[in-house]
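Side project, low priority. Logging it here so it doesn't get lost.
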Amino acid sequence: MPANFPVLKALSLPSVLGISHAESLGVDTFLARLDLALHNGLRLIQLRDKTLPEEARLQLARETVRRARPHGARVLVNGSLELAHAANADGVHLDSSAAAAMMARPDCAAPDSFLVGVSCHGAAELAHAAVIGADFALLSPVLPTLTHPGAATLGWDGFSALAAASPIPVYGLGGLERDDVALAQSHGAHGVALLRGAWT
C-alpha cells in the first residue's frame, strides 16, 4: 500500500455519516427516507439495526447498498465481516468490544477500497482502533442523547482533546445534528455521525 493511501482514503470520507434507524422507523419508511437522504447528498451509511433477524438485516443491507450505489454512496454493515461481504457492502463497522478482540485489521476481500469503522468512547479505544488499522472512528457520546439522557458525556472539550490525539479521522456522535458539522470540525472532528438526524 502506498504510504499516502490512508491519507487519500481519509480525505475521501464525507463529513456526514448516517446510521440506519429501520428498527424504529420501520423498513419501508426507512428506505423512503434513505432515498431522500441520498438525493440530498448523504454519501456514507452505517447499517446498524442489530435487533432485526439476521436474514432481515441481510436483505435490508442488500437493498441499502442497491439504492446507495447509483449515488456513489458507501455502506458499512455494523457487525460481522461475513454479513458485510454477503451484502456486497463497502465496509464493516465494529463496536468497541468487537474491535477490542482484534489484534489486526479484519481480513477484507478488497482491502484498498474496503472501509473499517470502529465505535469508541475514550482514549484507549481510539488508540486501539488505530492499531488495528481502522479507517475512522465514531467517538461518543459528545452531548446528551434521547436514548441515554442521564449518561456521562464527553462535551466538546473532552471530544476535542481525544480527537486531537487520534491518528485516524474521528466522527462526533451523540446529541448532534446535521447543522453541527462546522462546530464539530472546529473541535477536531472529521464530521458528524447521525442516527435520527440523518433521516428527518
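Brief comment: The chain is about 40% helix and 20% strand.
Revisit when time allows.
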